[in-house]
Amino acid sequence: MAEGKSRPKQKLKEAMQILALLDFGPKQSNELAGYVFLALLNLDRDTPWSGANNPLRGITPLMEFIGQKYRVKYAPNTRETVRDEAVKYFVDAGMLLRNPDHPSRPTNSGNTVYQIEPAALALFRTFGTELWASNFEQYNLSRATIRGELERQRTLARIPVLLPNKDTVTLSPGGQNPLIKSIIEEFCSQFSPGATVVYIGDAEKKFLHLDAVYLKNLGVVIAAAAKMPDVVVHDTKRNWLLLIEAVTSVGPVDGKRRKELKELFQGCKAGLVFVTAFESRRAMQNFLTQISWETEVWIAEDPAHIIHFNGERFLGPYPDVMPKF
After folding, report:
1. With helix as H, strand as E and coil as C, how does the chain read?
2. Rounded Cα–Cα distance for residues 32 and 252 (Å)
3. Residue 8: band (very low, low, confident or very high) from pLDDT cuts 50, 70, 90
4. Residue 201 class from Cβ within 10 Å (0-12 exposed, 13-18 middle, 19+ buried)?
5. In this structure, which of 7, 132, 224, 311 has its CB flanked by the most CB atoms within 10 Å?
6. Where in the chain is the domain with CATH 1.10.10.1820?
7. CATH topology for 159-320?
8. pLDDT tens across 11-66, in order?
9. At what angle do helices 2-21 and 31-40 cross, to 10 degrees?
């Protein structure tokens, strides 16, 4: 029994030792990080390092593996801690790949998975052997190259977006970001040409593009915890502030959201316009009953049109059906 109890601790000690050798700081080479590292390598207490492999695993499966194989239970509300204090650093160091099976998957997707990078896996399989020292030295020399190549691939996968002022920003791939690109490049040019894009949200970085000074001059101060719309655009000609939600799965401007946005931007010196954007009419169908009155809907597949959820304000004949006299 004593031997059985010591075996998992020995495996953990070795995992922490490897992480420290790779220059991870105290928090990224502690017990939590060590257990996460072992789960990423699919190593239980009895499997030798030569038997390590690199399955695709999300945060919850990692925690479940640790609970099953090492009898260490982490509460569901520690998922953020696992991601922020271990997984994130492993990814940044180039030791861990995020969504290698589907690079365009959004970072905040519930289906996000991670996998040990192949060169790192080959190294870890030699731990405890006479090959370790030379392999470790060779891996250390190539780490910058590996990290640089991964960063290059991430950069190539990002979505370039041309702003009305001809500046360019890039968004992380996948999710609603292709729709955000359409909003900025097509909706804005069609319905608010020359407008100023004040804010763009991104799955990887909430405040990817935020001109806080511009908003302050409009009478709006945004707190870090604020639930911002996906895009904020100032139509300077008409002094309208367009608050736009890009919807691919959740989040249209319903009655509750309209009230939230009205309160968030209270005191604004520009008139507020609430817009929900969809990729297609089919995508809109699931949300049709939720969309608030006194808002607008734009559909990317029909970019020249807009739907007014208003009423008599826009009632009237179009020129092609006016009487000919």
Report:
1. CHHHHHHHHHHHHHHHHHHHHCCCCHHHHCHHHHHHHHHHCCCCCCCCHHHCCCCCECHHHHHHHHHHHHCCCCCHHHHHHHHHHHHHHHHHCCCEEECCCCCCCCCCCCCCCEEECHHHHHHHCCCCCCCHHHHHHHHHHHHHHHHHHHHHHHHHHCEEEECCCCCEEEECCCCCHHHHHHHHHHHHHHHCCCCEEEEECCCCCCCCEECHHHHHHCCCCCCCCCCCCCEEEEECCCCEEEEEEEECCCCCCCHHHHHHHHHHCCCCCCEEEEEEEECCHHHHHCCCCCCCCCEEEEECCCCCCEEEECCHHHCCCCHHHCCCC
2. 38
3. low
4. buried
5. 132
6. 2-157
7. Trna Endonuclease; Chain: A, domain 1 (3.40.1350)
8. 999 999 999 999 999 989 999 999 999 999 999 999 999 999 999 999 999 999 99
9. 90
All CATH 3.40.1350.80 domain ranges in the chain, comma separated: 159-320
- pLDDT > 90 fraction of the chain, expressed in percent and rounded: 63
The CA distance from 84 to 134, in Å, is 31
Calpha distance 157→52 (Å, rounded): 29
Q: What gap in Å lies between CA 110 and CA 104, rounded to an integer?
A: 14
For residues 94 and 116, give the distance between their C-alpha atoms in angstroms, rounded to a whole number: 9
Mean pLDDT of 207-211: 81
Domain spanning 2-157: CATH 3.40.50.300: no
